[in-house]
UniProtKB/TrEMBL annotation:
This is 1-deoxy-D-xylulose-5-phosphate synthase. Its cofactor is Mg(2+); thiamine diphosphate. GO terms for molecular function: 1-deoxy-D-xylulose-5-phosphate synthase activity; magnesium ion binding; thiamine pyrophosphate binding. Mg(2+) binds at residues 145, 175. InterPro entries: Dxylulose-5-P_synthase, THDP-binding, Transketo_C/PFOR_II, Transketolase-like_Pyr-bd, Transketolase_BS, Transketolase_C, Transketolase_CS. Pfam families: DXP_synthase_N, Transket_pyr, Transketolase_C. The keyword Transcription regulation does not apply. The gene is dxs. Binds 1 Mg(2+) ion per subunit. Binds 1 thiamine pyrophosphate per subunit. Residues 319-483 form the Transketolase-like pyrimidine-binding domain.
Length: 640
């Protein structure tokens, strides 16, 4: 039996010798490479935190001591050490989540994988322990160095230092990368700490000195390494970053020396005040293909060959939405010098890398700082440029105030390109981009488009960057761009008619990639003798007048969107129909206002009632109960 197989809870680590701990670390890396290569997932980050996670669970007693991870994609080792070793369905329905999940384990506390929030959680938890008199409980926040680029981290540090009579340990997992290499002044400082010759020379010299005394000398070196680092820090001024925050600093510590990490954490634990432990790790540690990947160190992989790291899935001839957007943006930027690309630490995933290669001076990466990005974009627009901020849809919610008060209020020409809008699948509740359609409709002057295919993406992006007096949004789903769906007709206000039936039955308003679903619904209903007109509004917000006119001529209107029903496009259309005196029954088909679990996109859509057969069956049932109007549509309102 392997050492890993004997671990069912963190306390099983207490009985292991140092040699067994070394073996365990090797077994965990082998396990991760073998299992994640089969399912896909976040491989590189977890290979880098093996010894760190072991040390944390040996020094602190979860769940009595609260451990918060920022971000949650580095918790695979934590799962293994807390009794979750079946990775066969990782990130699939019924299997382990790729992030902390309270439903899985009492050792998981914070489920959201949005970066830079852990110190605020830790601040609140430690205050609660203090108020309740639970003075024997510690709080540990494990913060990736990329999270330090987020403003929330520094707001939390300010408050932690204001009331520091708490047992709070902040572990900075410094690997020089968030998704990609970490950027900004903080990154430059941490890089200086990692590479400064004064520290490295003194550290190596001391190690060589102890090595001369053989195994006893090396044992003494390991036992005193935490104190040694503190001594060396005096010569290289590592504490200057935190000296004014009244937070004790320990480090830097070699994050792959389990003994050194454990010693530093023991010191932090015994200090009984807020302590920051600076741990230097390597993303992708122990796996040559990951270490050779300069772009992101195998941050997230699909199914791969565990020996070579090469993808096993056949190359798809279809373009990814991010690739298509990147190509279209470069083409527009060649002719329009006002266009500036912006991202929040995700240059490659959002398709800005082609523009960065061609015009590096015209791409800005702000780090994990969405609020700053949006307000900075407003400033760029005031200065005569047109910023295009590409971000995951789930992350824009962090900057809603800035969208409202800095961009929209000032009528700034800023384009937001929301990637992974709608259901994203295996990354679960915190990554589904399902709130943007509802959330952004409250923004005055907002114009929001949802391309259905590559052709409409190119058209709508060009239209968006031409708007200089209001914010514009394009929402792009996860996955490959589908085949183009040609329109039968484009109405004067830009609405595309995709299929036309008798104007006495059903009008289907399909938003973005749900156009294919709408056309399949029309085909199924045609078999029932029901005639359907399918339209893609292209610009979903504001509501096009032609949609109101078409609604007045049909028995039933059905909107299909991969966002939440509450406050979605269907709700907006209903309100505009009422204002125009059109009482046609309307049914909004969309996602429930719930946090949806991880599963394949198709599985979630089907369970949410967004499959074509389910929509068609519902329409048949509704029409059977809807009165045929005489002179004008009935006033019956149909809702799901």
């Amino acid at each position: 039996m392997s050492v890993l197989e004997t671990i069912r809870s963190p306390r099983d680590l207490d009985r292991l010798t140092q040699d067994q701990l070394t073996t365990l670390a090797a077994e965990i890396r082998a396990f991760l490479i073998e299992n994640v290569s089969r399912t896909g997932g976040h491989l590189g980050p977890n290979l880098g935190v093996v010894e760190l996670t072991i040390a944390i669970h040996r020094v602190f007693h979860s769940p009595h001591d609260a451990i918060v991870w920022d971000t949650g994609h580095q918790t695979y080792v934590h799962k293994l050490l807390t009794g979750r070793q079946d990775f066969s369905r990782l990130r699939k329905r019924g299997g382990l989540s790729g992030y902390p999940d309270r439903a899985e384990s009492r050792h998981d506390i914070v489920e959201s994988s949005h970066a830079s929030s852990s110190l605020s959680w830790a601040d609140g938890i430690s205050r609660a322990f203090q108020v309740r008199g639970e003075t024997d409980r510690h709080v540990v926040a494990v913060v990736g160095d990329g999270a330090l680029t987020g403003g929330m981290t520094w707001e939390a540090l300010n408050n932690i230092s204001d009331d520091n009579n708490r047992r709070l340990v902040i572990v900075v997992n410094d690997n020089g990368r968030s998704y990609a290499p970490t950027i900004g002044g903080m990154a430059r400082y941490l890089n200086e700490v990692r590479t400064r010759r004064t520290y490295r020379d003194m550290q190596k010299g001391s190690q060589r000195l102890f090595d001369r005394f053989g195994p006893p000398g090396r044992a003494v070196y390991r036992g005193t390494r935490g104190a040694l680092h503190g001594f060396l820090a005096r010569f290289v001024n590592y504490e200057r970053m935190y000296s004014n925050l009244d937070i004790k600093y320990l480090g830097p510590v070699d994050g792959h020396d389990e003994v050194a990490v454990e010693n530093a954490l023991e010191q932090a634990k015994n200090y009984e005040l807020p302590v920051l432990v600076h741990v230097i790790t390597q993303k992708g540690r122990g796996y040559a293909p990951a270490r050779a990947d300069e772009a992101d160190r195998f941050h997230a992989v699909g199914v791969i060959d565990p020996e070579t790291g090469a993808p096993l899935a056949p190359a798809s001839p279809a373009r990814d939405w991010a690739d298509a957007f990147g190509e279209d943006l470069v083409a527009l930027a060649e002719d329009d010098r006002r266009i500036i690309g912006m991202t929040a630490a995700m240059l490659r995933p959002v398709g800005l890398e082609p523009l960065a290669r061609r015009h590096p001076e015209r791409v800005i990466d702000v780090g994990i700082a969405e609020q700053h990005a949006v307000t900075s974009a407003a400033g760029l627009a005031f200065g005569g440029l047109h910023p295009v901020f590409a971000v995951y849809a789930t992350f824009l919610g962090r900057a809603l105030d800035q969208v409202l008060m800095d961009v929209a209020l000032h009528r700034a020409g800023v384009t937001f390109v929301l990637h992974r809008a709608g259901i994203t699948g295996p990354d679960g509740a915190s990554h589904h981009g399902m709130w943007d359609l509802a959330m952004l409709q409250i923004v005055p002057g907002m114009r929001l488009a949802s391309p259905r295919d590559g052709a409409t993406l190119a058209e709508e992006l060009a239209e968006a960057v031409s708007v200089q007096d209001a914010p514009t949004v394009l929402r792009l789903p996860k996955g490959t761009v589908p085949a183009d769906i040609p329109a039968l007709e484009r109405l004067e206000d830009g609405v595309d008619v995709l299929a036309r039936g008798s104007e006495s039955d059903v009008l289907v308003v399909a938003i973005g990639v749900m156009a294919a679903q709408g056309l399949e619904v029309a085909r199924l209903l045609a078999d029932e003798g029901i005639h359907v007109t399918v339209v893609d509004p292209r610009w979903a917000v504001p509501i096009a007048p032609s949609l109101i006119d078409l609604a007045a001529k049909h028995r039933l209107v059905v909107t299909i969107e991969d966002g939440v029903r509450v406050g979605g496009v269907g709700t907006r259309l209903r309100q505009d129909m009422r204002a125009a005196g059109v009482d046609t029954a309307l049914n909004e088909v969309g996602l429930p206002d719930a946090f949806l679990p991880h599963a394949e996109r198709g599985e979630i859509l089907a369970e949410s009632g967004l499959s074509a057969p389910a929509i068609a069956a519902d329409i048949v049932g509704q029409l059977a109960g809807t009165k045929q109007p005489a002179a004008k549509p009935a006033r019956t309102r149909v809702s799901d």
